[in-house]
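Dear H.,

Thanks for agreeing to be a second pair of eyes. The structure we're designing against is below in token form, covering all 169 positions.
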């Protein structure tokens, strides 16, 4: 029996292969925000990860062609927001190119360090950026947690098979 027995035909590495594989990986949905000279910016991220507890570090990826990248590349701090399953529309707004991400119906306020903080999320953090690591056409941003609030109510929003979903029992 070979390692690929019972599986489909393996394909060579490509952007399409990577996207196809990761469509099968359910990921939590977060919105990353920052303040820029032109106002608040933000984007939907499914790449958020806890990196270290001591010191408390997180990471996320952002494409260098993303509209939020210029602000994130210069920002000292970012907001990290864990979305609830009731926030599919908000996730879509922050994922859509050209959307008015901070206009109605988005509810937000200026938080610590001037970072835009979204309301009604499951949890949020304000983090100080400590590194931006080149990774192909993206950057992996490492940030140290400064403060946050984990007290939101609800179940997490997930991204799977190209769609936003809630948990199913």
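And this is the sequence the design step returned. I haven't edited it by hand at all.
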């Amino acid at each position: 029996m070979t390692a690929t027995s019972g599986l489909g035909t393996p394909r060579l590495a490509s952007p399409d292969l990577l996207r196809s594989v990761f469509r099968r990986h359910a990921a939590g949905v977060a919105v990353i925000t920052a303040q820029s000279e032109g106002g608040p910016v933000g984007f939907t991220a499914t790449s958020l990860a806890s990196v270290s507890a001591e010191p408390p570090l997180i990471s996320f990826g952002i494409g260098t062609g993303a509209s939020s990248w210029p602000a994130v590349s210069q920002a000292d701090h970012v907001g990290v927001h864990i979305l609830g399953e009731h926030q599919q529309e908000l996730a879509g707004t922050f994922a859509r190119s050209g959307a008015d991400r901070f206009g109605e119906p988005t509810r937000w306020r200026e938080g610590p360090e001037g970072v835009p903080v979204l309301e009604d999320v499951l949890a949020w953090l304000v983090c100080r950026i400590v590194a931006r690591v080149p990774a192909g056409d993206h950057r992996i941003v490492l940030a140290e947690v400064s403060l946050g609030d984990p007290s939101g109510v609800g179940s997490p929003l997930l991204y799977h098979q190209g769609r936003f979903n809630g948990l199913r029992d």
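Two observations from my side: DSSP finds three helices and twelve strands in the chain. The chain has one domain: 27-166.

Warmly,
E.
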